[in-house]
Amino acid sequence: MFSKACEYGIRASTYIALQSLEGRRVSLKEIAEEIDSPVAFTAKILQLLSKNNIVDSVKGAHGGFEINKEKIDKLKLSQIVDAIDGDKIYAGCGLGLKECNADKPCPVHDKFVEIRNDLKQMLENTSLFEMTAGLEVGLTYLKR
């Protein structure tokens, strides 16, 4: 459903948020290793996240990536998805047809509209802080 870049972006943001809550700034290499993503690809994703004010990039010897603690609960998954994939997840045909809309629906159009609306609501109502909760107690994982 999400692009590979978006999946990595969500995982990277979640990991950075968890480390930021513990007062740690993390390096590109550490993030890439933790989310099982190539370093160069991770760098491009982090650049998008930084450009969209989701993560902060600090240069220098003690630099790395972090998220302001006060911002972690306010950041929603929808912001991460929008920063990387835009709004294309909410548009287009569920079967990938070029021409599918309310006037010319595909066989799953109406059902897919419901699923997309539910997905949008979930993304808009799930904070980055919520994503870290399962990681803190070891109930969820970032790697495949």
From TrEMBL:
SUPFAM superfamilies: Winged helix' DNA-binding domain. Coiled coil: none annotated. GO terms for molecular function: DNA-binding transcription factor activity. InterPro entries: Tscrpt_reg_Rrf2, WH-like_DNA-bd_sf, WH_DNA-bd_sf. One of its GO terms (cellular component) is cytosol. PROSITE patterns: HTH_RRF2_2 (PS51197). Transmembrane segments: none annotated. This is Transcriptional regulator, BadM/Rrf2 family.
